[in-house]
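Lab channel / #folding
Pinned by the channel admin:
"Please post every new chain as: sequence first, then the structure tokens as a reply. Keep commentary short and put observations after the output so the thread stays searchable."

First post following the new format, from NK:
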Amino acid sequence: MHPPDRFCDPHTTWHRHLDWLNEKDCFVSGPTLGAYQQQELAAVLVCPPEGPGTAWIRLLAARRHVPLSSTFKQLWQAAVPLLTGSGIHTAAVMALAEWIVPVLDDSGFSVLDNVIFYEQDLPALIPHKIHHRIRTFNPEDLSSIQIVDQLAFSSIWRHAPESLEAAVQKGSYITVYESDNRVLGYQISTQSAFGAHLARLAVLPEAQNQGIGLLLVLICWTIVPALVCSELL
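Reply from TO:
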């Protein structure tokens, strides 16, 4: 199923997962279900796996006249057997808008965690010396940072390989921390009209609490002004 043009207009209520995939990528990345009214597609739900045992609701779109809670409940009831049949035991969604909270509550979802955003106003570019173990990411590092990502996070927060690859492709500034020819940590920062965003920071469990994450952030903090950004989010 591909997104019809009418789902990309002001008459549609959207929930999109906070990641690097665009709308069309979402429609082809996993189980996609549609709700119809009078033979017209009125709502869609996309909930692909994101690593072993976990799926994220990446997209929920509905025409404004559609009752959201009852429509989502019908879509979700149809999605559950598809997910469990493929080995998925946990489904998650990041509630980025107030309207989706009662919709999720009505279908039995519960609050797991809160996502907190921090903001830093950046000074003018500060001369810096990059730590000798921190270097710029190169394409050969992709498999290494995938390993770091899988080990650094609990299952629900891990990125599937295709998601991490998309993050790398859209990253503005990516660095790795390397020791003895082994990548122990990495960070991905992106750039937009609103400033820079520290999008991903991960360190191997065995190397945590040694200041590696702090070094990666500090280097990012001094480089970001050179990207013509005044804020780091």
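NK: Helices lie at 23-28, 68-85, 100-106, 142-152, 161-170, 212-223.
TO: also worth noting, The chain has six helices and twelve strands.
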